[in-house]
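Anyone up for a design puzzle?
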């Protein structure tokens, strides 16, 4: 790859490196743009972008009514629900599929708690590539419906999300499919770091003081850290924000690891929380999350389901932003952070709103595209039919 000069292993994830300098991000101020604006800092060679759907360039909203409610005059919402399948997963999907189109792969696979799968199903449909998806049998039915509407194959795994990841990765190795699994494919972090570049540009080329984001497997937060760190490496910023990661009380492995106290069983129960998008018991790159939070002087906080639902209502009623519970976690986390002195009301704080509740027109998932499986053999046989 032309632009990538090397790669280092950092806390269990692969970190691509570039020849950092200030010219890598253009000086102009475009009215509208996509994540390909930052392609000098992405692992794509020259030539036209093949992925056919515009991704990224999402608004950074000032949210005046919410600012008033919170007593925070410098509060911002980075609205990632404005991507084509309404979550930040579209960025990672686009970069992985761009790579797949260039390498002429015919199938992409991922495991997912829901949104990565919806993004992959629709993105693959747009790119003309087959999607084979693995989810827990707990996956939200509306999200399943969307996946099969987009023509994806969906395999349901009773043993849960971690087992779905294992099967998807084994299938990628065995059948030579493109592996979009978060944490396994470093391109997911490369794509998601463009959020940091966008926020920095939207704040007149300054990083916020504090950046708050929900944490499931970890790439969203780790990518923010990498993006802000790369701006410093390029000589375009002199500091990075404190990162605050938010998890649901019912599934908070990384908050417990951060505090150094073991999680009880009620704190590791993904089916118990409304925040399905971040309900991950064994985060793929948890150590990298803890490193990123520590490096910037941030913290990890847990929020209750009531607080998550309250944040959904407040985002709707005070900012006009529709979010699913996991997507609203940053606002719930902000209240905890302010209470505990981790963020000050006078600071510039950016909330990453990661996903919106999905609509399915009351359709149900296609039975000819779904199957409950335990083994790769069952996957192979279902796909042959
Ligand atoms: C996936 C997801 C996250 C967290 O992303 P990770 O990169 O896995 O930590 C947050 N919110 C929503 C809505 C998501 O779908």
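Challenge accepted. My sequence:
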């Amino acid at each position: 790859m032309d632009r990538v000069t090397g790669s280092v292993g950092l806390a269990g994830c692969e970190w691509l490196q570039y020849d950092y300098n200030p010219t890598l991000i253009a000086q102009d101020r475009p009215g509208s743009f996509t994540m390909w604006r930052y392609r000098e800092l992405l692992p794509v060679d020259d030539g036209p972008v093949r992925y056919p759907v515009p991704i990224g360039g999402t608004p950074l909203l000032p949210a005046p009514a919410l600012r008033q409610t919170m007593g925070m005059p410098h509060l911002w919402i980075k609205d990632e629900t404005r991507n084509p399948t309404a979550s930040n997963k579209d960025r990672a999907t686009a970069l992985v599929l761009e790579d797949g189109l260039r390498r002429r792969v015919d199938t992409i696979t991922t495991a997912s708690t829901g949104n990565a799968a919806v993004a992959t199903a629709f993105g693959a449909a747009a790119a003309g590539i087959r999607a084979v998806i693995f989810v827990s049998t707990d996956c939200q039915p509306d999200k399943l419906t969307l996946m099969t509407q987009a023509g994806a194959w969906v395999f349901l795994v009773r043993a849960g999300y971690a087992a779905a990841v294992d099967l998807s990765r084994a299938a990628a190795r065995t059948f030579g499919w493109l592996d979009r699994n978060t944490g396994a494919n470093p391109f997911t972090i490369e794509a998601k770091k463009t959020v940091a570049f966008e926020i920095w540009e939207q704040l007149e080329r300054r990083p916020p003081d504090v950046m708050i984001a929900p944490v499931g497997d970890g790439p969203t937060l780790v990518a923010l850290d990498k993006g802000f760190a790369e701006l410093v490496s390029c000589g375009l910023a002199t500091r990075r924000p404190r990162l605050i990661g938010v998890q649901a009380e019912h599934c908070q492995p990384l908050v417990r690891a951060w505090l150094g106290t073991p999680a009880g069983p009620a704190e590791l129960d993904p089916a118990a929380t409304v925040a399905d998008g971040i309900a991950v018991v064994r985060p793929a790159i948890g150590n990298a999350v803890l490193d990123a939070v520590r490096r910037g002087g941030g913290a990890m906080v847990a929020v209750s389901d009531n607080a998550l639902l309250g944040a959904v209502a407040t985002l709707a009623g005070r900012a006009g932003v529709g979010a699913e519970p996991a997507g609203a976690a940053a606002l719930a986390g902000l209240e905890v952070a302010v209470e505990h002195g981790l963020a000050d009301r006078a600071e510039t704080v950016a909330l990453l709103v990661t996903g919106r509740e999905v609509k399915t027109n009351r359709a149900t998932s296609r039975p000819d595209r779904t199957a409950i499986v335990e083994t790769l053999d069952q996957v192979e046989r279902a796909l042959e039919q």
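A detail worth pointing out: The chain has a mean pLDDT of 95.
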